[in-house]
Structures are given as structure tokens and as C-alpha cells.
Amino acid sequence: MTSQERPTPPADLDDDVAEALRLLEDSDAAHLRAVSTYLEALAAWTESASDDEPESDASVDETGDADGDVEYPADVPERASVTVKEIAGTTYHYYQWRDGDRIESKTVQR
């Protein structure tokens, strides 16, 4: 590409991203470099955030887990939301519910 040819965005972008790029096309170089720096940092953060999530993470709701067999401890209401996580081979059930203005929680190792 010569210095006279304007770069073209990838063809497989969704409409919202393509529109955002069209809005940036007439920006000055300093503005574009600032946006580029932000987007590189955002991409790095997105990659690191996805790396932090355990692969065996399974979220469930009040109706039960993936197998349909959530047992609520005696001091946890049935309306509590449940998140099941496996960490280093140990399964944990995280229960969370609202009690008036407070949010209550309990962790149970299975």
C-alpha cells in the first residue's frame, strides 16, 4: 500500500463496529493513535479476563444445576442463586440471596 492509498477495514465487522470506524476515518493522527492505544489495552484486558476464568466453571440458577440436583443447606433459602465452581479438583457451591436491603451469601465445599 502506498502512502496515497487509504487503509480499508476488515469486511467481516458487524455494523456497529463498521459505523464506529466510519466516524473515526476523518480524525487527526493523534486522536487515532489515542484510540489505538486504548483498543490495544482493551484487547489485552479482554484476553487476560478470559484467561482468569476457570474452564470448569458452571453457573446455575434457583431451579438447579446442570444435573438438576442442587441441595440447599438448612440456613439458605430455596430462592438463593447458586454458582458451582470447581477449583483444584474441589467443587464449591456459592449461594447468594437478598434479605431485605442486605445481600447474604454462603459458600459450601462439596
Describe it for me?
This protein has helices at 15-24, 29-52, and strands spanning 58-59, 81-87, 90-99, 102-109. A four-stranded antiparallel beta sheet has the order 1-2-3-4, with no helix packed on it. It is elongated and about 70 Å long. Strand 2 (81-87) and strand 3 form a beta hairpin. It is built from two helices and four strands; from the N terminus they run H-H-E-E-E-E. It is an alpha+beta fold and 110 residues long. Keywords: Plasmid. Residues 49-72 have a biased composition (Acidic residues). Residues 46-75 are annotated as: Disordered.
Keywords for this structure?
110 residues, single chain, four-stranded antiparallel beta sheet, 2 domains, alpha+beta, plasmid, 31% helix
Total count of strands: 4
Radius of gyration: 23 Å
What structural category arises from helix and sheet content? alpha+beta
Strand content: 15-25%
- Helix-residue proportion: 25-40%
Strands across the major sheet, in which order? Answer: 1-2-3-4
Counted by DSSP, the helix tally is: 2
Q: Provide mean pLDDT, rounded.
A: 78
Unreliable sequence segments: 56-66
For the sheet with most strands, the description reads:
4 strands, antiparallel
The figure for the number of domains is 2
Task: State the separation between the terminal residues, measured CA to CA.
Answer: 60 Å
Globular, elongated, flat, extended or rod-shaped: what is the shape?
elongated
Order of helices and strands: HHEEEE
